[in-house]
Amino acid sequence: RSNAEKFEFQAEVSRLMDIIINSLYSNKDIFLRELISNASDALDKIRFLSLTDKEVLGEGDTAKLEIQIKLDKEKKILTLRDRGIGMTKEDLIKHLGTIAKSGTSAFVEKMQSSGDLNLIGQFGVGFYSVYLVADYVEVISKHNDDKQYVWESKADGAFAISEDTWNEPLGRGTEIRLHLRDEAQEYLEEGKLKELVKKYSEFINFPIYIWASKEVDVEVPAEEDESSDEEETSDSTSEEGEDEDAEKSEDEGTEKKPKTKKVKETSNEWELLNDVKAIWLRSPKEVTEEEYTKFYQSLAKDFGDEKPLAWSHFTAEGDVEFKAVLFVPPKAPHDLYESYYNTNKANLKLYVRRVFISDEFDELLPKYLNFLKGLVDSDTLPLNVSREMLQAHSSLKTIKKKLIRKALDMIRKIAEEDPDESSGKDEKEVEKSGTDDDEKKGQYAKFWNEFGKSIKLGIIEDATNRNRLAKLLRFESTKSDGKLTSLDQYISRMRAGQKDIFYITGNSKEQLEKSPFLERLKKKNYEVIFFTDPVDEYLMQYLMDYDGKQFQNVSKEGLKIGKDSKNKELKESFKELTKWWKGALTSENVDDVKITNRLDNTPCVVVTSKFGWSANMERIMQSQTL
Ligand code: ADP
Ligand code: MG
């Protein structure tokens, strides 16, 4: 094309496309899910803009917020069209090729190790999955702020963009034409497409139509036998088309009564494939487990085989009304703790009265709960204000508070229903979970392995909920027998007269088990918690007490084990030695030299002062590995 401008794909994108094209991955269906998801996102965006400016929707068909699918068997083209926000020329260049998203290289890596394309949407590169089934793709797009453009590429490292002077004007939105590969001809079968759309569009909040062909009986004059009627295949909507036909045949019938015969003809009409229902508006009792799982998958773009670990679906009433569904994913996303303090990856979708507003609202949940997926739909928030004004709305504080409570309850329940967690619990409570036992078994340990760090960050950051979060804390200890245990369980095992909760921090459990700091405590049968995650050092600066008990780092000054009756005599008899020793080490290196009862076999040990950094903390600060 004479007006085409050529561009090269950004290197990582190009690599990704190569991998997709050459993939032997059998589940190629996923491209459709990605395209529908993009169409739905684009429709959400224009609908959001229309809240403050009705004009943006345009008139007539252009204003219809819908998705259309067409098949062209002869040309082997599958077309998906939306009337969403569309893309400007600059959008096409940036979003479809020249700017690699942060997930691009992560996904390339994942592809090379697992070969599983299923999670492509999670990495923000779902569009490129079109090359699983097509060798040539055209994207025609019209944004309100620009002319209509065509993006096209044969995935050969380059793409071209031209001002569109030959296709029918779209009004607004995007049309994607997939020129299907020979081995992907099944995507021209209407039945296949219908099945896939139904499967992938269950939770899409816009109508999806397919240009379906239908065999109909038509009466034609017996003698002249003129074949097809032009009207039959016109692009008018189905209802109109049928009405016209009906009128016509009646007229003909009453006036002339010619001899007629019936013949079969195919006509096309737009067939609606989904019912646009919002799952969160339904009563939780009516929603099945399978529906929640599927809803989670479409929300989180997580199409693995695992179910979410837990969910909570509720309605908040009172001053601020909203409905919400929260999920704990089965796995942490690849970048959960990447630049935790610099970015906010909010994962809840915010709707106001069924209208999607944003999924980048960081006022809904605190950072440490960013691993949750879900959705909030509020009737209290105003619809026709800017995102910035919403962000500052006073109701958000209440919503956030309630969401945190519900989220922590949901997590607590994972533990409560997990039979592995129930040791030391009252028998009746365990019985309640009944038949689900097998399914719930080990779920909390799983949760902890994926998201334990988030709970710890919560203890550090959220003073209001610190105690609730501390209940969710798990760790190993000198008595936990290789399993995870909780503070409540620790307390239930405390020795008579034991006042403090003992812990030790370090690199690994194996290393800590050999620590001389434990000698005496072990011998006296005291339990000591192992904290081996770098974040634990910070955690213990914030977690001062639990259930009225103080925490004592056993490698620090101030450890009291039972009664120190002999201590006084010993102190006296070794007075000269300790004095000499302190002088010999100089006061810059040590604060004091003391007699201790914390050791058993080891003659002496270096202890950190009460407010100083532990040796482990020194190590962490040196390597800066939070
Ligand atoms: P993601 O949807 O996660 O952002 P994709 O690779 O699926 O990643 O899409 C990349 C980008 O291309 C989108 O973020 C969007 O800006 C743009 N895009 C894709 N499809 C459409 C569409 N149908 N309408 C408007 N923009 C689109
Ligand atoms: Mg997408």
TrEMBL record:
GO cellular component, one term: endoplasmic reticulum lumen
Keywords: ATP-binding, Calcium, Chaperone, Endoplasmic reticulum, Glycoprotein, Nucleotide-binding, Signal
Histidine kinase/HSP90-like ATPase domain: residues covered: 27-184
Chain intervals for the UniProt region annotation (Disordered): 220-264, 415-439
The keyword Kinase belongs to this UniProt entry's keyword annotation: no
Positions annotated to bind ATP: 34, 38, 82, 87, 101-103, 122-127, 174, 387
Recorded GO MF terms: ATP binding; ATP hydrolysis activity; ATP-dependent protein folding chaperone; unfolded protein binding
Principal place of residence: endoplasmic reticulum
Cell location: Endoplasmic reticulum lumen
Keyword Nucleotide-binding: yes
Domain of life where this protein originates: Eukaryota
Compositional bias of kind Acidic residues: 220-253
Family the UniProt entry places it in: Belongs to the heat shock protein 90 family.
Protein name according to UniProt: Endoplasmin homolog
Organism for this UniProt entry: Theobroma cacao
